[in-house]
């Protein structure tokens, strides 16, 4: 993860450095161009001002006055006649100045023009303005400025840009450190959390999560850890329950088989022991069968074949199959189902659901009570309720009754032959057919399972 921090930091640095370099380059060039243009414009304007004064009063006193003014500035004025002969100069005329004057074009617009603007290679920048009196050129005003002033200005500007660039890089470096830490610290914490999860430690906790994609990822990891912890606990409980449920009948079978093998065992006792062995073998077979069903459902390795089913005859057929078991307990089954209701479901799988609920209701109800199957349609959904008048389920146990091997009263359930898998199978079969199942119960009043399709 430190490598990730470094990579993100380098990426941020290169991106911002490139953006800042391009911005600084264009800003630097724009400012330099603007400053040089201002100097050239100011020089040409100054020459035009002198030209206007001379056009208004072209005599020796005016010429001396202009020369005196320019001698005290950082610019130099040179006045020539129409043939290019120097008439006046505010300072010494250098060879470079003469060269620039000689290179001046013959035709110069009245507003003047820039003769030399290469401030980087030449000693002077220069402009020329023609003096026109009575529509005739009487001479030219040449303005010169040493380029050292511009170079000093640009040099100072470069120093400021360099200082600004260094400060920007330093500030950018600090920001990137905090930014990469802000981005990668949660990732580092999540990496540590996932490592602990991979080692089987699900008691992970992450700091206060941000409300962004990073926070969503952290929340997903927390949910994953919680789900894995629940899965581990359920697996351990499941394995313990399987071990117990298999051990009990196997212990009976092994124990009574050893007794039956004794030579001193009488015929009557032998029949009794063989009966117990057969009973425990049946329980074991039923348990293995239920586990097989659950395994196939977990792997989605079983098929649901739906077809239109006329509910009233269908449920009456199931009730008829279950009537003998109810007579043994002196119980009554009441079916309330309109004759015009149809549903698209898997009749074989759904029969298993109803029978499991009826078996569950019979086990935990007293004789001379009723089991009711009530079917109705509401909001285009089919509601099937299986209710008993048994002792009910405590409220604290209701959320867990669909868990595998979970039993409200373990001793009584084991005595009645239950392994705690029936309702788990019911829930998965209902959900496999696109439905839901809910349970409500009141102690000593009864329990109602409601299937919604």
Overall pLDDT:
81
Question: Structurally, how many domains make up the residues?
Answer: 3
Percent of residues in beta strands? 15-25%
- The third-level CATH topology of the largest domain is Beta-Lactamase
Report the span from N to C terminus.
50 Å
Which stretches of 5+ consecutive residues score pLDDT under 50? 411-417
Quick structural summary:
The protein has 453 residues and is an alpha+beta fold.
Report what the structure shows.
The chain has 453 residues and is α+β, with helices and mostly antiparallel strands. The protein folds into 3 domains: 2-153, 2-Layer Sandwich (Beta-Lactamase); 213-298, Signal transduction histidine kinase, dimerisation/phosphotransfer (DHp) domain (Helix Hairpins, Orthogonal Bundle), CATH 1.10.287; 307-452, 2-Layer Sandwich (Heat Shock Protein 90), CATH 3.30.565. It has helices spanning 2-56, 60-71, 95-102, 147-198, 213-260, 267-298, 311-328, 347-363, 410-415, 422-432, and strands spanning 75-80, 86-89, 113-116, 124-133, 136-146, 307-310, 332-336, 342-345, 370-378, 381-388, 436-442, 446-452. Residues 411-417 have low confidence and may be disordered. This is histidine kinase. Residues 181-233 form the HAMP domain. Keywords: ATP-binding, Cell membrane, Kinase, Membrane, Nucleotide-binding, Phosphoprotein, Transferase, Transmembrane, Transmembrane helix, Two-component regulatory system.
